Amino acid sequence: MFVDQVEIELHAGRGGDGCMSFRREKYVPRGGPDGGDGGIGGSIILEARAGTNSLASFANRKFYHAEKGQPGMGSMCHGRNGRDMRLFVPCGTSVIDVADKFVIKDLTRPGEEFVVARGGKGGYGNARFKSSVNQAPRERQRGADGESRHVILELKSIADVGLIGKPNAGKSTLLSRISSARPEVADYPFTTKHPNLGIVDVDADRSFVMADIPGLIEGASEGIGLGHEFLRHIQRAGVLVHLIEPVPVDGSDPIENYGAIRDELQHYDPKLAERDELVVMTKKELDPDGEVLGRLRQTLQAEPADHRRDFFAISAVADIGLRTLVEAIMSGVTKRREAMAEAGEESLPIRLEDSAKSQRKKRRVPPHKVGLTATLSNEHQAKDLPDAAASPAPDNAP
Q1: Are residues 239 and 121 in the same domain?
Q2: What would the pLDDT profile of 153-195 be if each residue is shown by its tens digit?
Q3: Does 166 share its domain with 114?
Q4: Predicted TM-score of the model (pTM)
């Protein structure tokens, strides 16, 4: 089950109460106060984890409570701290406050984490209140309540390339032909019910992540159908690939369909309309005379020069033009990654093992295993080293 939006309540643990106690032992008169402090309540931590691609684990549970801190005890014993609760979410998850509708945090990189609800502090025991004028205090503090958060977790797929277009335009078929992803493919609209991600390997050293976004309809930017549910998944895509069907199954005009999708992008987010976009006519075998191809080319050439887009004609079934399209997409992705590097941003790891390598800590090498001393053994002593033999003896040597 694919879930990309959930609403949950998070409650951090309450701090433990302080203890009021006095030392009572044989032969120790007037032992004084010895009440310990309460433990700190557990916090709730959200962490982005590579390999997790859905919020399905949060679908059937709405409340999360961290462990509370234990109360203090006599003999100056501190109460045990509550264990932190760590929740794992997919990379690309936005944490949104329900009341004020602002984004608390965007978790985009593997291993990125933050404390969304902090545990309450433990209360002071009566030993904290003793003084020269109050040698037998009978007061203590209650533990503080932990923070509570009512948040929305919203997943926006992270991909280098996003496929957009009308339903049945051939997005899932294209993804299945150039990557190892196997989305559902059928000859009726709205086959794709949720975004699918696939890794496209251009060659041994170059690859990118492509997202198949469910088909858009007119009015999607206003929430008609599931427009908002689909459109948010292309907000993080760096390059858009707009697929156009030459002979739509609903009998509509392909040129008008192209303009309708462009308008929906502009209305939903003007930045999407300015993003790098490749226009691709799919199912080339359905246009043997090239009539639709010519009309699309004229439409694109009529656009302003600074907004003119590259145009391709392919057939995923007949394997026509796929290699040229993949190279063009890779070129656009490379330019975007170079721009990110100049801006000081790091590109996300593509595979799970790449993320593990980046997070793996280097093991510290002991000093005696570095340099010339690393070669020493019972048979190979320090006096046998060439540097030692060549170096002059000190002046005070016997």
Answers
A1: no
A2: 988 777 788 888 888 788 888 888 888 777 666 665 555 556 7
A3: no
A4: 0.67
